[in-house]
Structure formats: C-alpha cells, structure tokens
Amino acid sequence: MSADRAVASSQHPTVTExxxxxxxxxxxAADAVVAGSIVQAVVQQDMTNHAGSxxxxxxxxxxxxxxxxNSMGRIVPGLAPHxxxxxxxxxxxxxxxxxxxxxxxGFMPAMKAIHEKFGTKSWSDLVAPAVKAARDGHxxxxxxxxxxxxxxxxxxxxxxxxxxxxxxxxxxxxxEVWASQALADTMSALAAEGPDHFITxxxxxxxxxxxxxxxxxxxPDDLVTTPRWAAPARWHIGDYEISQxxxxxxxxxxxxxxxxxxxxxxxPAMGHFTESPEAGYFMAHALRLAQHETGFINDPAVFExxxxxxxxxxxxxxxxxKLHKSLPRIDLTSHVExxxxxxxxxxAGGASKQPAGSCELTAIDPQxxxxxLMNTLQGGGIPGEVVGxxxxxxxxxxxxxxxxxxxxxxxxxxMRAVLSNTMIRRAGRLVASLGSPGNIxxxxxxxxxxxxxxxxxxxxxxxxxxxLPLTDDYVLSVESRVSREYVSGLAxxxxxxxxxxxxxxxxxxxxxxxxxxxxxxxxSGPRREGSAGGF
Length: 535
Hints:
seven-stranded antiparallel beta sheet; 33% helix; 20 strands; 17% strand; alpha+beta; 16 helices
C-alpha cells in the first residue's frame, strides 16, 4: 500500500490499526511501536508476550542518525541454569533437550527506554489499546489457532499455563472471542503505574515470588536491567549502506558474508538463486558458510569482537574463491539417486518443525521518523509459567558455537542472537527497512539480496521463494515454487532438494517500508496474517 504522510506494517490488523491511530493523533513512530508492541502481546500470544525480548532500529528525521536498541532477555550471572519444563513437552521443549531456561525479561525495560528517549504521547494513552483488547477479548484467527495448537504442549506442563491457554479444557477455537481478566488487570496496572509495574512494581514482585517457589534464586534487583542503545553495525555493497544490529547480534555479519560472497562470484549474472541451479548452489553454500563463521560472535563485554574481520570484503572474496573451487567436475545425479533411493531428486517434503514466534513492526511518522522493531516471546521469563495473565517461554540459549542463541553464565549476562531489524540507505538516503520472524538467520540475507543485488522492490523481494542453508549431507530445503529443471540441475551438483510448502510460515513474513520520491510504501508478507496501512 502507498501513502503520503505515514505508514505502518505488522503481523496483525489490530496492531497496524493501533500504530496508525497513534500517529494520526500526533504520536511519533516510536510511540506507535510502543503501543503496537504492548497490544500485540495481548492479541498475538502465539507469537509474543510482555516478558520476551525487544530489539529495534530508530531513524531520526532531524539528525539522519540510526540508533540501535538491544533489550534481549538477560542471564543472571552466577546462577546455575534453571530449566523448569523438561524436554519432550512440544516445540518449545523438544525431546532430547533440557528445555528453555529462565532469564530476566527484556520487553518492558525496552518499552520504558523507547518511551523515555523518543516518546511524545502519555504512557497511559499508549497502553489503553492493550487494556481494551485484554478486557474485551480478540477474535481467534485460524493462523493463531494453528500456532497455539503446535506449541501448547509446553504450557500444559504447568498449572498456570493450563488455566491460561485451556481455561475450559481446550484451546480457544477459531472465531471465539478470547479475553483474559488477569491480563486485563495487569494491563490496567501497567497503564496506571507505568513500565516499572513490570520492573520493580506489583508484577515484578509476583514474578520474583514465583521464581523463588520454583527454585530460581533471583532477587528483585536482577529485574532492573538497562537496555543497550548503540550505533548499529554498518556495511556496504555497491551504493547501498546496510544498518543492522551490532554484536552480540550476528545478523549484520551473516548478511554481509552471504551477499559479499554472492557479489564476488557475480551470482546475479547467473540468474535468481531459486531459478538458476548454479546460483542456488552458491546461495545455499554461502548461507552455510555464514552460519559457521558467525559462531565466533559473542557478547563484546565477555569476548573480543571478530565482526570487523568477518565484515571485510577481502574475507568474503576468499570465501568466494574457496566456494568456486568446490564445484563438482562431473554430473552427480546418479550419486543423488543412489544415495537417496531410486530416482529420487526430492526428499520427503514438509513444513519446518521449529517454532517461529516473533513479531516485527514497521512505522514511519509524518515527520519522517522511521522505526523497524521486533518483539518476541523468545528470551524472557520463567518457561511455561503465566504470571498476571502474561505467558512466558524463557530462552533457548545454549553455550555453543552453532547455536543462534547463546550466552555465558558469567560476565554481563548478554546473549547473542540473529535478529532481523534492517535499514537500507542508498546514496546516503534512507530508502527502505525490513524485518521478519521465522528462520531470520537465513531469510534476511536472501530478501536483502533480492533488493541490493537483484534490484527488486521490497514487496517483490518478500514474495520470492526462500531456502534454508545447505545441510552437511547436501540436502537443500526450499519453498516448492521452483521448477523441475531447477531441481534436476541441483542434483547434477550433488544436492537433493527437500520441498517445503509453497509459502512456509517458518520462512518468515516480512514487514517492510520503503519510499520512492515522496511516496511512502508499506508491505506485509503473504506467509502469515499481517497487514499494512497508511494515511
């Protein structure tokens, strides 16, 4: 959609409408994302909650500067990991794991920091939509019910989870109006007392008391955290400058490696990576390389930061040469058939099995201020518990080079992740922003490559098929809107294609904004239930 003055995009119509109403009433883009995030955690509990994490990029029209906010949930240093929900309890606690761990929430400290730095409207006005949505309820959509059904086993482990998500013995059904008096009471207190209700006030006290009952030895002081404001990481490709979250987030380096390798190989000249088998081979391998290389990024308060080395175009050129020298010399189709059975060029297909709960918001206000923000259920709270109507998932962090979410039990408690907030300048002017939940480690570089290497608009870039990184056994999972010739061509290169659904919601659904001349545009991808609007 297009507009003259302001635009907004989110994964839920209520959230988009809330953001537009705030800006139409004179609020800033920052006001809009605060109100949008708080109401989103009421109407999209399948994707987010008030105890998760928040990150964002904020562009000031007055100064032209982009500022980064990182308010991930934090580990409490010096405490042993607390895993109250064991493995085997659904997608959030799969079999063979210890389940997620308890961490300090980052959501409300982020809302407080954004409002203090950029807010223009009263706090109570921004929380009012969430109070109403919790009290009156929202209509459960088919997508919401789908995700809740896939993840509710995790919450069935706890009494508070069962009471909240299955109040009459089953999930709220499609078309049912789902309200929560407990959450309405919490939102009313939040509106009246401000964000400190979740940090030092009544909700915080209940949170610490429940933690003590479960054997997690935190203190009230542990909940008082300071979100990090910083300059984002910046890197260049052609006449584009890309701003993304800095370390300990991995996305900037991940994207720079993938796009740097593709550029050094001149992959766009081969065709699109979901149409040309050779381009697809290089993209799949570049994603895999980036996944390995970014494992060295950790909290800069604890480790040295290798980001400058990993962002170096000469390093990308080295990786490109290594990858080019790995191309097969012969047709490997018969190997694929022998290795995987019969004449199989496709693996047994199906949707990804990982949870993908997060929410991305985009807003541009009439003054030209621009925000790209994520709020998520990941990385906050006590796993499986519901306190004051607020469900919590905790963090899936593990100490691992390979894990996208990783942290250390000593030091500052900061965790690394790989999140999607992205802003794009061209010739010094901010022209676009994008972000999404869902396999964002690999979908952001693909969507970004569609813009900066292939020249697509953000809307067209979002629409194209996407893939996962190539696995160690040469299997490539890709949305199945690809040709038979593409699949056969990859088999010649030794790659077996695993077909994902044509539009796999685990592969993200981008919230985007861009401007052409004096016209603003906003989009919401087709893989989930988002909406975009403007005035």
